[in-house]
Amino acid sequence: MFLCILLKDAQKVCVCECISVFSVSFNVFIILIVSDIVHENLKMGSDGESDQASGTSSDEVQSPTGVCLRNRVHRRISMEDLNKRLSLPADIRIPDGYLEKLQLSSPPFDQPLSRRSRRASLSEIGFGKLETYIKLDKLGEGTYATVFKGRSKLTDNLVALKEIRLEHEEGAPCTAIREVSLLKDLKHANIVTLHDIVHTDKSLTLVFEYLDKDLKQYMDDCGNIMSMHNVKVFLFQILRGLSYCHKRKVLHRDLKPQNLLINEKGELKLADFGLARAKSVPTKTYSNEVVTLWYRPPDVLLGSSEYSTQIDMWGVGCIFYEMAAGRPLFPGSTVEDELHLIFRLLGTPTEENWPGISSIEEFKSYNFPKYKPQPIINHAPRLDSEGIELLLSFLKYESKKRISAEEAMKHSYFRQLGTSVHTLPEIISIFTLKEVQLQRDPGYRNSSYPESVPVLLLSSGAFQNQ
Prior knowledge:
Elements: H1 2-6, H2 11-37, E1 60-62, E2 68-70, H3 79-86, H4 98-105, H5 115-125, E3 133-141, E4 145-152, E5 158-165, H6 174-183, E6 194-199, E7 203-209, E8 213-214, H7 215-221, H8 228-247, E9 250-251, E10 260-262, E11 268-270, E12 277-278, H9 298-301, H10 310-325, H11 335-346, H12 361-366, H13 385-394, H14 405-409
């Protein structure tokens, strides 16, 4: 700002300086996030360092008389010590000689590790470095990002590498920054894990856990005839992940089968948080250009930009139906076509079931016929009465009347899963329970399939190979 005042006639210099400041700020943002990906709870001081890490030097202890005494007793550092200190994965491979080097240079393990030292330690191990990951296959490409299947040299596990191109003038896409800032704080068994971030001058690479396929590919593989038990297990996991997000005021805003990843165990995880948004108050105004058309609620289709967690719940209902019926519920080609499909099934809305609908200009301009609601059981005959009841509770016209993810998990439809699924820690999979197992899908084709492309890892709406 001061530079702009002093150089009134040098607008270009001012602009360049602003871009430079933004670039530096973005670099700092990425560095701070990288250090938080592998999380450690420390009591931090006002300077951003550990409270306990300041004061005396790392190899000194303060005596009761105020004299600094040299602490010469350093016990041998083990891999268990290191994993615990840095919250590392149990299967990580530490570079040769690293423990010996750490033994000589690190403060005693009974002292806290400063944030700066922690970042340096993670970097030395290999986090935040492109050479740590081996690219194997290109899985897909979008407007802003390319996704590769890769392997981590640290764990030898497969990973998904989402490589986002950084334009010199524009920097990182806002969707990438939003996805990183949200995912680093979302730790749940039903949310895809962000392992690492690699930032270079030309790209920002997000390193995710690798999962075998998405829900759309799963349904294709079983000929769109899923076991109704598996429908229930998958739906519960969707709700479990969403409930966790909504409790933290995070809206996903782009729920669809392609954005739900599934591994070989049947664990389902929410992914692609490029359109997700942290909300502060329920009435905050957001963009109405969110959620893929088929899974977009009617209030958003009609231009509403004031919404809360209920925007996700309509999409859950559409996905629930698609799993049970084997076909999309409202596969419209345009906004008007989408609304026609919704109204033909659920009936044209009235002031009784959607107060205020008659005053919405968009609704009046379409001049929809007066459709009567159809029995949903005729379209999803494999759903029992409890399933139909739950489905309709997702598909309410008035958004505030849609059932929440937390309430839906307690619905009697899930009684078969038992009570223990409700008391599991957030990071524990429901498949740790003996009573929760997948069944063979009746339409499953026993043959080899081409490797799935995790399109959900690409920025929403950017995938070109669908």
